[in-house]
Amino acid sequence: MKFEEPPQSNPTENPEPRETKSPDQVSEVAPVVPTPETTNTNEADVAARQEADVKKIAELREQLGIQPETANESLEQRKERLDNLWTNYEKIQNDPKLMALFDRKQQFDFQREIDEVLREHGYPERTKVSELQLEKWKANLNPKFIKDGFVYLLRGDHPNLDQKGFYARTYGYGKLTTKQLAEQLHGSGEVGYALYGDERYLTTAKPSSDNTTEQLAYLQSAKGGSSFISTTTSIPCAEAGTGNVPDAAEQLQYEVYVLKIPIDSAINSNTANHFGMEEDEVLVPDYISKDEIVAKFPRGKTEEVYQYLHDLLGVTKEDLRIQEKTE
């Protein structure tokens, strides 16, 4: 953009006659002395303008997603601050029991109550939907899967996870709930780097939402590995492995888990069929405890899963996305 400068006068061209005063005239002119009222008014105007400028800058920073704390940070300083969110991971790596609890592929065989273990290590309670501070995201659960204040969901995953439950990476390894993580991030533009360590999220990639929690939820649906657990009401999607890309050998071992989650701990995904699958995805923040797993079935037992949910909720095969076979 080109800014035009105001025309500059040349004193050597077309000089205008200048009025001169005699010494007598000058001596008769009394100097203007500013009164206290004038001085105070001028100072008040300056202060008001400065305050307005500060407010305007703050508004612009908010619109651009720039937090006051990050305005003067270099890229390396910003990365270091976000990397520090994972400082607990080093401690957890040195604790075989916690690693066995949070790693879905590891066997879990110690006898202590999991709640007791988590409390001992200072793990917080799960974030409720009312604490998520959602703005545009609508937490509309399918009423067909709700009964007595709970929503019934499905997840396909590694075997024997009914012994320990499911845990988001940021909760298990970062020791942060979704609410805590959102509060520690300085805007939605930091979510991608905090989750995946990819610098492009801080430099070129634009978040899909200005709301930090909504960006965490979106990336769970789009990429996985966020602060939510992916579940579904679709049996075919659960059998495929919700939120995972397993190899064929792993997939054969998968089990389909039926989950009973309080309705204040679940939100629907807002990506709908954007990724080419009718996943009917529902997101649960932070973790799903083993006590919330109410049934499990070997992968491929589609009819048995359907019958269980039909008897419990009255849902149809169409509700569960089961395609009737045609002869």
Count of folded domains: 1
Mean pLDDT comes to 82
Unreliable residue runs: 1-32
Give the ordered list of helices and strands: HHHHHHEEEHHHHHEHHEEEEEH
Question: Outline of this structure?
Answer:
The protein is α+β, with helices and mostly antiparallel strands. It has 14 helices and 9 strands. The N and C termini lie far apart (68 Å).
Q: What does this molecule look like?
A:
By secondary structure, this protein is an alpha+beta fold. It has one domain. Helix content is 37%, strand content 12%. The protein has 14 helices and nine strands. Strands 1-2-5-9 form a four-stranded antiparallel β-sheet. The chain has a three-stranded antiparallel β-sheet with strand order 4-7-6. The radius of gyration is 31 Å and the shape is globular. The model is unreliable at 1-32 (pLDDT under 50).
Q: What is the element layout, followed by pairings?
A:
Blueprint (H helix, E strand, L loop, with lengths): L22 H6 L7 H29 L10 H9 L4 H6 L2 H7 L11 H7 L25 E2 L2 E8 L8 E2 L1 H4 L5 H7 L6 H6 L3 H4 L8 H11 L5 E5 L2 H6 L7 H6 L1 E8 L4 E2 L12 E5 L1 E2 L4 E6 L3 H12 L14
Antiparallel strand pairs: 1-2, 2-5, 3-8, 4-7, 5-9, 6-7
